[in-house]
Amino acid sequence: MRLERKRITDAVSGLVAGIKPRRETVAPAVVLAVLALAIYAFLAIADEVVEGEIRALDERLLLAMRDPVDPSNPLGPAWLEEAALEITALGGYALIILVLCVVTGLLVVTRRYGPALYAVLSVGTGALASHFFKGYYARPRPDLVDHLDIVHTASFPSGHAMVTTVAYLTLAALVIRFFDDLRIRIYVAGVALFISILVGVTRVYLGVHWPSDVAAGWALGTAWASLNWLIVTLLQYWRHRGGQ
Fold first, then answer.
1. What is the dihedral of CA 73, 77, 83, 89, to 10 degrees?
2. In this predicted model, what pLDDT tens digit does every residue of 62-76 receive, in sequence order?
């Protein structure tokens, strides 16, 4: 019996010989799983939008944030509307470009040219992708309530939700590389996700997006940031293997 167990153990050991249980080997698999799930979520939402089957749910969720007596007014005191306008600005191109320039400038000054290029390409291509999908789906903005923020483009997917997710997840991914403490990494990633969620919610609260627009923006933004991070991770792996 013991001999049989030893043979099985030796066989298993032979199968996994040379495979090192490092964090570096797990990270690409996790990112790939997130990428696949995010793409699936976006395609599922987009399919519902195209077929018009999500319209009723969108209307219920949008009106749930409005005064039942006067839908032109959002729920809550006047200061909450003002706060929503200030929070939604975190996803505006002006602020995101400013933050990106500051972070990229720091990386360039410290001679981290690769991460600087990665940040610019990730956020820049994410913004271009947002414009492409908006033009492709050409969904009108909500017509049930007054828009409490100025808008100029189509509704689906939410550019604020997508670009905010791409930008802050990209910057978070760069920051956590400088820390080994898992608690710090979780905190930084959590802050990036929290800002993305908060900005998306304000878009619905202000009446400029359907909830499905925002959900699709979150999903596509997560997919885009994950794709860029996966590419960088694979390039680093190949570079490491090439140097051996």
1. 0
2. 999 998 888 888 888
